Amino acid sequence: MPITPTPKIWMNGSLVDWDDAQIHILTHTLHYGMGVFEGIRAYETSEGPGIFRLTAHIERLFRSAQIMMMDIPYTVAELVDATKETVRSTGLESCYIRPIAYYGYGEMGLNTLPCSVDVAIACWPWGAYLGEDALSTGVRMKISSWTRHDNNIMPPASKTTGNYVNSSLAKIEALKAGYDEAIMLNPHGFVSECTGENIFVSRKGVVITPPLADGALEGITQEAVMTICADHDIEVRLGQLTRSDLYVADEIFVCGTAAEISAVNSVDDRSVPCPGPVTTLVADEYAKAVRRQTPAYKDWVELAR
Fold first, then answer.
1. Residue 176 among the catalytic residues
2. What is the domain class of 8-124 according to CATH?
3. pLDDT tens digit string along 78-106?
4. Which pLDDT tens digit goes with each residue over 22-77?
5. Domain spans, the chain
6. Which residue out of 8, 159, 288, 298 is catalytically annotated?
7. CB-based burial label for 247 (10 Å; 0-12, 13-18, 19+)
8. 139-289, which class in CATH?
9. Whole-prediction pTM value?
């Protein structure tokens, strides 16, 4: 999806012009994929742009860095403020936000210990990741031939730049085969997640999403969905899923910052009812929550002003 430039990008403490936000060709992370990032959305609210679970996302950025032994040279509060400043600089009422911490120019080789850590935050307009009709008509999924990272190979709990080579291979495979998205299994054959979304399966009145131990990223939108389900007396739990569980599901939906709430209409050409009642309820409640229209969830959205 093409990127629409905005006026400024925050880099290492300052707002710089979009076209001036450049790095050296020998930037360490460009060569070795050792960086951490986040995906966040700001939504239009009656009080100006509101950023969905901003502090939680920045805290996850720091947890990812901790796993990768990367010392971010800012505090959580400083990057929260920097994100708000960057959103304000765009003049947009809603946008996608990409903070990234990466090893910069000056050292080369696999040893990251001597490397400096740079931080940048960019914002731009970005529509629904899986398509504008992903909720109403659903998306076609396939089980990927690519296996999700094992916890002792590339830690999936860290939102690391290099980890997403795995996701990109699965995504490209699915698209070239005529599908919209891929579902990834872990090395033991259990469902992990999609290439960039957590997955929820509803069957016989119970909603299940894979646990972190099966290779799923700890999703912030996933946590919000579980809260919405519980608040509406829908039984929701972490649990292992096989591909056969997907084939006989009453409904399936996926969630993530970019994808928001998207319905699934089939897996490996097995039809899934779409959109189901749980998917519709969760999507409706989520859409209100991110715009600060639900009093119980107002603290999920931090105003950029």
1. no
2. alpha beta
3. 999 999 999 999 999 999 999 999 999 99
4. 999 999 999 999 999 999 999 999 999 999 999 999 999 999 999 999 999 999 99
5. 8-124, 139-289
6. 159
7. middle
8. alpha beta
9. 0.96
